[in-house]
Amino acid sequence: MTDFPNINDTNYFTNRTLDNEKGEPTGKIVMWRIRGEEEFHYILKCPFCGHDQEKKELFPRKPYRPRCEKCNKSILIAKLKKKK
Ligand SMILES: [Zn+2]
Questions:
Q1: What is the pTM assigned to this prediction?
Q2: pLDDT tens, residue by residue, 13-42
Q3: Of 2, 5, 32, 50, whose CB has the highest number of CB atoms within 10 Å?
Q4: How many Å lie between the centroid of ligand 1 and the Cα of residue 38?
Q5: What are the residues whose beta carbon lies below 5 Å from ligand 1 (ion)?
């Protein structure tokens, strides 16, 4: 498994749980982009089918939606809710 990068070398980094259709946190994703690179790198556990995948992919614009290669569902990386 890939080591996570030093956060200082990235211009994007997220690590969060992903909910399935029932709102249960059955998946997770760690995604980052190294400074100077165009592709994002992510390690995903699909919340819908449990499939693990690791991939490099270009996401031209937000919101980022990686797609599970097994169940073919697109997975929305929603904006984080702001804490009050
Ligand atoms: Zn899936």
A1: 0.87
A2: 999 999 999 999 999 999 999 999 999 999
A3: 32
A4: 25
A5: 46, 48-49, 51, 68, 70-71
